Every structure is written in C-alpha cells, then in structure tokens.
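[audit] Reproducing an earlier prediction to check determinism. Same input, same settings, fresh worker. If the tokens differ from the archived copy the diff job will pick it up downstream; this log only records the rerun itself.
[audit] input (82 residues):
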Amino acid sequence: MALSEIQQAEVNRRLGAFCDARVPPRAHEVRVGFRIESTEVVLFEERPAFQAPHEWREMAVAKFRYVGTQRLCQHRDLCWHA
C-alpha cells in the first residue's frame, strides 16, 4: 500500500528540511535529495559526472520502507535494519 497523502507530506517536510540543511547554498558540486516511490523513500546524493560535468550522477544513500507498524531502513550495505 502506497504512502498516504499525510505521510507523504510528513516525509516532504522532514526530509526537505534535512536536505536543505545538509548542503550549504554556496556548494554547487553536490546536491542531496529524495523521492517517494510507493511505499519507499529513497534519500540520494548527486554530483557532476567526471567526464561530463553537465550531467549529474545519483548515488543512493538510504532507502526507507513503510511496512505497517515496522520501521525499516536500508543502508549502503543493502541490508534492511529496524
């Protein structure tokens, strides 16, 4: 079941504030963002590509999944943690 509108608004509020505070406005070489995909939220970092600096490359930092009453988070080791 996908996240409700209330849950999506909460994710946008919290992770939006986190991403805004994470990178100073003067830093143009890195961006932090997130996207909501059904029951998952992916937190990612973007940097310019090495050989094509006008293209940005995305690297997943964490993935959060809503499963009823459980709270799970997938870290870089690709394992799910409570």
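[audit] rerun output stored. Observation attached for the diff report: Residues 5-81 form one domain.
[audit] end
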